[in-house]
Design a protein that fits this description.
Radius of gyration of chain A: 24 Å
CATH topology of chain A: MetI-like fold
Helix content of chain B: over 70%
Number of strands of chain A: 0
Number of strands of chain B: 0
Mean pLDDT of chain B: 91
Shape of chain B: globular
CATH architecture of chain A: Orthogonal Bundle
Helix content of chain A: 55-70%
CATH class of chain B: Mainly Alpha
Order of helices and strands of chain A: HHHHHHHHHHHH
Distance between the termini of chain A: 12 Å
Number of helices of chain B: 14
Mean pLDDT of chain A: 90
Strand content of chain B: under 5%
Number of helices of chain A: 12
CATH superfamily of chain B: MetI-like
Oligomer: heterodimer
Radius of gyration of chain B: 23 Å
CATH architecture of chain B: Orthogonal Bundle
Largest sheet of chain A: none
CATH superfamily of chain A: MetI-like
CATH class of chain A: Mainly Alpha
Number of domains of chain B: 1
Chain lengths: 295, 273
Amino acid sequence: MAYPIPRRGEGWLLAPAGAVVGLLLLAPLVVSFALSLTSFSLLQNTTIFLGLKNYGTLLAHGMALGGFLSDLLITLRFTVVSVLIETVLGFALALFLSRKFSLTGWLRTLVTVPLMIAPVVSGLQWKYLFDPQVGMVNYLFQVLHIIKEPQNWFSSTGSAWLLIVVADVWQTTGFMTLFILAGLQSLPRDVFEAANIDGANAWLRLVRIKLPLVWPVLASAVVLRAMDAFRIFDIAYVLTDGGPLYSTETVSLFTYRVGLAQFNMALASASSLLVLVAVILISMPLMRNLMEDAS
Amino acid sequence: MKARLAAGRYFLAAVVTFWIGGPLLWIAFTSLRIPLRVSQYPPTLEGPFTSKNYSHVLGSLQLADYLRNSLVVDGAATLLALALGLAAAYRISLSAPKNARRFQWAVLVARMVPPVALIVPIYFIYNSVGLLNSRVGLGLVYVATSLPLAIWMLSAYLRQVPAEVLQAAWVDGAGPLQLLWSVLAPMMLPGLVAVGVLTFLANWNEFMMAVTLTSSTQSATAPVALVQLDQEYGVAWQYLSAAVVLSIVVPVIIGAISQRHIVSGITTGATKQ
């Protein structure tokens, strides 16, 4: 639709959407900023103005166990590791599915299934599979002689965070696959055919032709996933709830614990706004691309 | 060489099927077993099998109430987001290009706001106006968080509607509501369905807002119920498995019907239109 002549007096069509977004997205952010400048807590009667002191607290004492900065590092480690695994697996699976064979249709349907399922379900499912008493993973690992005795994967700071990675990879690799597959399929066919005729081997075709051509799509997929992974909450809440010893507490879990379990809403507001800034920063390159597409 | 390649492909297909389908099948299997078998280690495949877990979860554990809340809250929020989103997208498309660009930027920034930035202030606001533990309260939040994506996607579909169609409707003297309802909505039906499906699924699976704002059978949704079940009956995997199966029936049916919409929605941005 090429901008027809604007008609006057229809601004009210924006009003309902504007009101809902204004009241429940924008106003809360303003309220949050205001709260973050105070000492407000649902457990205390008096509230005083603190200025930026809450932000100082988050950063100054942040490296202690369960501190904001320590949780930020945990979140970044999780984001980098899981997005890396998802990208590699997703790309490999997309390449695998880009050449049709009899099971392609089945596999494509299958990879969309985890995308329709709640993260809470993915978390519970892996909690069951990794269960120390009756877990299937312990059994399979014993049968394959990977471990001798059933392990408690949740009690060690070395393995607990990897459970969250596993559940996240299970859930979102399909997103990477479908996204990259759509990118691969929009590439011009004649380039591949020319490369085939020139006798380039499979590895050269992948590294020199497919990878550079699909690079922009891959980059958007990585940014989208990184944004989501950085704010992970559901899976971690269900699987470990931050434990053991805060070793799996992400910044979203931190905000929830401080604000809604300990009711220190001022400090939680400050941390949630820092998360907001981080997510916007991560998404900047993507937003530029999207805007170019839209205009 | 060719036979080996084919065998390799089937092997890979089997690995992927086992990785994605295995966990879900094991859950479905567990949901039909008796407690004695579920608590056995090493695990076996032995019977007997029962459907009692389902009736227990739906009845005594009140999952039916939570599923009803999910349907009501999510259904209403999705319809509202579509209606308000279409009206807004239409109005934005009529603005001068410079203003339309500004609106799209605002929509995009709103889309990036993570829910964690909203739970504390919305809890604070709802606590003071008495909207905690209410389906209306949760539904309104879902409308707000769904609108940016809805407006964004509907704007893209709207760009494909020829300007002549709108001009013809104007010449006929159609008011804006009539135009939206009887001209644009039917023309954009595939787009509305695609956006509706994505919105519905996202809200059906949403947990952070739901667990913050609701807690009882009056208003809490299925994901909240699942987590409560896990916290209260953690060892009774047969109940949790049955609840999981029941909670994924709706999204899986919707997914099966509209897989193409979902895939195209997910991959928007992967290809330039």
